[in-house]
Amino acid sequence: MSKTSLFAFVAVPLLLASCIAAEQDNTECDIEEVSLHLDSPIDFFFHEYDTLQTVISTETDIVFTIRSYANIQSVPLSLRITEGASIYMISEDGTETPFLSGSSVDFSNEKVYRFRVVSEDKAWSRNYSISVVHDKPSEGNLFIDYESYHLDASGKYYVWDAPEVFPDATWKNGNPGFKISKSSAKPMDYPSTPAAGAGPDGSDCVKLETCDTGPFGRMANMRLASGSMFNGIFDVGNALTAPLEATLMGSPYTHKPIQVRIWLRYERGSVFQDRDGKPVEGVVDEPDFYIVFYRNEDAEGNKVQLNGGDILTNPNIVGLGRLPHHYNSDGSDQLSNDPIHGVTDEWQEFTIPVVYTSVIDATILENKGYSIAFGSASSWQGGYFAGAIGSKLYMDNLHLYCE
Q1: CA 269, CA 42: separation in Å to the nearest integer?
Q2: For residue 23, what pLDDT is reported?
Q3: Is 299 helix (H, G, I), strand (E, B) or coil?
Q4: Which pLDDT score is estimated for 6?
Q5: pLDDT at 137
Q6: Judging by beta carbons within 10 Å of its beta carbon (0-12, 13-18, 19+), is residue 139 exposed, middle or buried?
Q7: Which of 352, 349, 378 lies closest to 173, judged by CA?
Q8: pLDDT of residue 131
Q9: What are the C-alpha distances in Å from 187 to residues 4, 23, 57, 156?
Q10: Would you say 165 and 253 are in contact if contact means Cβ atoms under 8 Å apart?
Q11: What is the distance between the alpha carbons of residues 122 and 86, in angstroms, rounded to a whole number?
Q12: Which parts of the chain sit beneath pLDDT 70?
């Protein structure tokens, strides 16, 4: 062994020992899990598992929804926070008091409680709110014009307001993930953006565009990002390691959807490429739009929420409506140069019926045992990082009709 390699062999353990000895205090300051402890949860919640919420990294407003007639007063509140961190309850006058997890809290009258989590090294903190609100019955039918939008808190990308029946009343998309790959992008350079005055009636609409993710995307083998819009949760913390699973889709719904009518137009990018960025001969890009209705519990009563990987194939799906596409004999997606979805570069109104494979149980429906999910994308293979850069899907004036 040479002197150089011997030095390296000895130095590595010494370096590791030095790193261990100099290990820094934790800088994280997150609430990771919130739970309410009730003797009979089903008297207050639609499902027993609704008493516990796992908090994703971007979430700071934590809301529990209870039955319209229920009222939670004194209830033990448990908060799991990052290791070494401290948590304080903030009073109305701004006074901070250490909060002991498991302490009883009065959530009557939809009172909102504020908390501050301080990291172990005391250099970082993060504010949260926790509340319990009553369920607000919906009329079932929805009209969405995509005209209510604003920049997110960072000012980097746009977000859209959604009906209150959706989690936090906000549409989700892949913009937060695109921010990781292209932090220098301007708001209108993101995959999901507003298009002012470009709708079929001259109003604002949504533009979903398949975008190049730049050097970072090429390094991560995620060379493009399809513009998208869906209801549910986008877990940006898993966007790089498990992008399909990071897209949690669907919201509990107490009405049976029958059909969707929506205005669409599409401008296809010129070159369809695979995940490795190589052009695929004889294939053109296609848009996607679908509505899925599914049972949100399994046979054992565990919560089910579909994700980008199984949103169209999960056995809990009971109803599905989608733009038409070609499929292989085994049911898998067929890439084609002869699309049948019918969306062109001229505005058209599409009617998409929901086809059911199971009978809907009225009692389960009334108790939020089914979820509805909307999904749309500028490249229907975008979840697998394949498509044509520059493809654009414009959407406006969505009508949902229920039984």
Answers
A1: 50
A2: 64
A3: coil
A4: 37
A5: 74
A6: exposed
A7: 378
A8: 95
A9: 51, 38, 22, 5
A10: yes
A11: 9
A12: 1-23
pLDDT of residue 166: 85
**Structure-derived torsion over alpha carbons of residues 285, 287, 291, 296, reported in degrees to the nearest 10:** 50
Q: CA-to-CA distance for 128 and 23, rounded, in angstroms?
A: 28
CA pair distance 48, 239, nearest whole angstrom: 29
- Return the biggest CA–CA distance within the chain: 80
Report CA Rg, the chain. 24
pLDDT at 402: 97
Rounded to whole angstroms, the Cα distance separating 34 from 79 reads 5
Distance CA 87, CA 85 (A): 7
| Calpha distance 170→295 (Å, rounded) | 22
Task: Write down the pLDDT at residue 18.
Answer: 42
H/E run at residue 8: helix 3-21
Cβ–Cβ < 8 Å for 368, 112? no
**Smallest Cα–Cα separation from 390: which of 217, 267, 223, 216?**
267
The pair of structure tokens assigned to 207 is 């533009």
- Token pair 């897209």 in the structure block, residue: 247
* C-alpha distance from residue 1 to each of 7, 124, 131, 331 (Å): 10, 47, 65, 59
pLDDT digits (tens, 9 = 90+) for 368-380: 999 999 999 999 9
Among residues 379, 164, 190, the alpha carbon closest in space to that of 288 is found at 379
pLDDT at 85: 96
| Residue ranges of domains in the chain, CATH in brackets | 31-134 (2.60.40), 142-402 (2.60.120.890)
Phi, psi of 367 (to 5 degrees): -100, 30
Supply 244's token pair: 């399909």
Residue 121 in tokens: 């090294």
Residue indicated by tokens 């470009």: 198
Task: Quote the tokens at residue 202.
Answer: 């001259």
Q: Is the distance from CB of 323 to CB of 290 less than 8 angstroms?
A: yes
The pTM score is 0.86
Q: Please provide the size of the chain in residues.
A: 403
Of 213, 212, 207, nearest to 228 by C-alpha is: 207
Instruction: Map tokens 């052009």 to a residue.
Output: 279
* Residue 339 tokens, joined: 């699309």
Which residue from 232, 110, 111 is spatially nearest to 165, judged by alpha carbons? 232
Distance CA 394, CA 392 (A): 6
- Provide the 3-class DSSP secondary structure of residue 110: helix
